[in-house]
Amino acid sequence: MNFEYFSKNGNILPMQEATVPISSIEYAYGFGVYEAIRVSNGVVLFLKEHLDRLAESAKIIELAHPFSESFIEKAILDLVAKTEARSFNIKILLIGGTSKEESQIFIMCFNPLFPDKKLYKEGAAFTTSKYERVYPHAKTLNMLQSYMAYKKARSVGAYDSLLINNLGNITEGTRTNFFTIKDKTIFTPQEEGILLGVTRKAMLKAAIKNGFEIVQKNIRLDDLKSFDGAFITSTSSKIIPIRSIDGNIIYESPAENLKILMKAFDCYLAECNGILV
Asked: pLDDT for 82-99, tens place per residue?
């Protein structure tokens, strides 16, 4: 679907006016933060959590701006109300300026790239890349190495690339969070070294409600065979099982407890009305 409007600093404008000046050094150098939010049947999912993370990302890179959380929330809801579609994704770009007052916020709608349905049943292929982000808890526009890793993964038919830090541990995907599962225990990489995804947070809430235990643990590639399965989460994909890494099949099919978790998370999303509970 083509979207006709976007929001700039709280003003709804035609999409043809959605431009960033090439003279913007801040944008060119990636001095900005962003969020991607899912809208499902007109409901903005986990809006508070996304706005909290946007604020935290800006704080981490010292991006001063004049926009309050309530201002940004109203701008989002105004745009959603102006949009005819009921289900789509929203992207927020908060771009810094030479002063607090010169910072700008852009909000736009776009069509999500939904995964092939067979990936949920069979699992997806992944590659690996040696890379760790400088500010793990900040969702910044400085995405060159992540982009290159993702592009390489897609060129060989993989869904995403898993990032390996300098200690040899898997941290996350280029745009996904990573987990393993053993029986009814979910293992997540140490939180200080990863982006704390909103879908990740929602999945963990759903998991706990359904009797799963959560453990933080360093996970290496060589460890994967000791688990029943592995999976990723993201805004558009929800939960996707991992089947192969770098061309090597790790899990022939999703583990039974992973299938249970996937169904539980689908139910959670259907019943939560966009609020993390």
From this structure: 999 999 999 999 999 999
